[in-house]
Amino acid sequence: MERKRSIPWMEQFSRPDMEYRPEVRWWLAEGFHTDQTLLKDIGMIEEAGFGAIEFLAMDEPGADSSLYGWGSEEWIHDSHVVMAAATEKGMGVSMTSGTNWSNANLITITPDDKAAAKELDYTSEILQPGRSRSGLLKKCELTRPGVCAQELIAVLAMKRQGNTEEATILDQDSCILLTDQVKDEALDFTAPTDGEYELFAFWLHGTGQTASPSVSVSYTINYIDRYGVEAFIDYWNREVITEEIKGFLGKNHRVQMYMDSLELSTYGRGGQFWGYHPLPLLLHLRGQRFPGKAPQ
Q1: pLDDT-derived band of residue 245, with 50, 70 and 90 as boundaries?
Q2: What pLDDT, on the 0 to 100 scale, is given for residue 5?
């Protein structure tokens, strides 16, 4: 009987090198593992034919996030165990840039910090033809826990031309920029006599978006400015990437940080992601100068 010939490419498909094998996502429930169970499961993942692990923290009803959530000593320890075992087996390993998979987030920031996610919100008031207003500008209603600070970005007035079921129609050519006239968040202004005007005050404030499970409240970072990534790098270098982890990185060239989606939210009336640098950049692209000193 004639023996079947061995075809190299078929053997490669049946026993591919580790780097060509599929990866598996591993949802680690809070408080459900010991070092021994982690090592056992990694062995099972390898035996099942996977070549890399994506692991992340998943909340578990009844588990104490202050002990087992992302950012806790237990979670950092578990991360080290997983990375060490994967490296020893030649497997790739990926971890989320924060708890959950939806965005990069940190337990070391508050919504009012520059490093936290920001949104552009606004308030408005209607002025009849020729009517005047004075005093402090109306601020936004802040509904998210921990969001307190607001920073005025711009003030303008535009003539109202009418309404539809879905929106108010404004006359773009009638726009009056009033930002330079604001003093200590107060404005004196008299509307033109040619129609009804709406006065808009645009404010920057934190979104207050959070992610879980974590050892304490974990807030989404600022994706618009460098402040977010600087705080992110600082936290990881200080708390997670120990000399031991650096050793793994030197041996395992398939260590990654990932987010499978970017689930960012705003909660105010404006609904626009914002930061400290978009306005100067937009003005520069239009060939205009930023009034005053641009943010650094």
Answers
A1: confident
A2: 60
CATH numbers and ranges of domains, the chain: 15-108+210-216+223-258 (3.40.50), 118-206+268-285 (no CATH)
CA atoms within 13 A on the CB side of 61: 0
pTM of structure: 0.86
Contact 159, 194 (CB under 8 A): yes
Joined tokens for residue 78:
């578990």
Residue 100's SS3 state is coil
Polymer length in residues for the chain: 296
Pairing of strands 52-58, 92-96: parallel
Contact (Cβ atoms closer than 8 angstroms) between residue 246 and residue 186: no
**Phi-psi label, residue 3: left if phi above 0, alpha if psi -120 to 50, beta otherwise:** beta
Preceding peptide of 129 cis, ω within 30°: no
Q: Which two tokens stand for residue 6?
A: 């061995």
Cα separation, 112 vs 147, whole angstroms: 6
Cα(129)–Cα(195) distance, integer angstroms:
5
Q: Hey, what amino acid is at 228?
A: G
Q: Tens digit of pLDDT for each residue in 22-55?
A: 999 999 888 889 999 999 999 999 999 999 999 9
| Torsion angles phi and psi, residue 193, rounded to 5 | -90, 0
